[in-house]
């Protein structure tokens, strides 16, 4: 399933918005932001709520790909992110495009079955 569309021009995203974009729970997003603090650094408002930047969202998408799609451990994903940042960005974009194409093909297949 492709990631939910979001507006990268928006300055900040709430944890609920990020969870919806990733298709994961807010507790998992909170856990990843604490575990991968070298890559995801959400700011906090006066109430203490996390506010994620578009760069944080992109990093969380990469973490999601490594942990959920490639089944890497958290330590392995952190090491991969430190060592191969540019390659991961490209791979994540390709995976996201392929997910979108797959969704489109499934929709076409369903419409042809009718």
Automatic annotation (TrEMBL):
**Phylogenetic placement of the source organism:** Bacteria, Pseudomonadati, Bacteroidota, Bacteroidia, Bacteroidales
> Is-annotated flag, keyword Ribonucleoprotein?
no
Q: Which UniProt keywords apply?
A: DNA-binding
Query: InterPro entries attached here?
Result: DNA-bd_dom_put_sf, MerR-type_HTH_dom, MerR_fam
Any one GO MF term held by the record is: DNA-binding transcription factor activity
Full protein name? MerR family transcriptional regulator
Q: Which domain of life is it from?
A: Bacteria
Q: Which SUPFAM superfamilies match?
A: Putative DNA-binding domain
- Keyword DNA-binding part of the UniProt annotation: yes
- Residues in a coiled coil are none
Q: Which organism is it from?
A: Candidatus Coprenecus avistercoris
Q: Domain (HTH merR-type): give its ranges.
A: 12-83
């Amino acid at each position: 399933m492709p990631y939910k569309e979001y507006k990268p021009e928006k300055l900040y995203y709430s944890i609920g918005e990020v969870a919806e974009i990733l298709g994961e729970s807010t507790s998992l997003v909170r856990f990843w932001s604490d575990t991968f603090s070298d890559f995801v650094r959400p700011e906090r408002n006066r109430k203490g709520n996390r506010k994620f930047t578009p760069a944080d969202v992109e990093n969380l998408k990469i973490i999601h790909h490594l942990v959920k799609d490639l089944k890497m451990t958290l330590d392995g994903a952190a090491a991969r992110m430190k060592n191969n940042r540019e390659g991961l960005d490209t791979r994540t974009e390709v995976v996201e495009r392929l997910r979108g194409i797959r969704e489109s093909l499934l929709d076409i297949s369903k419409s042809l079955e009718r």
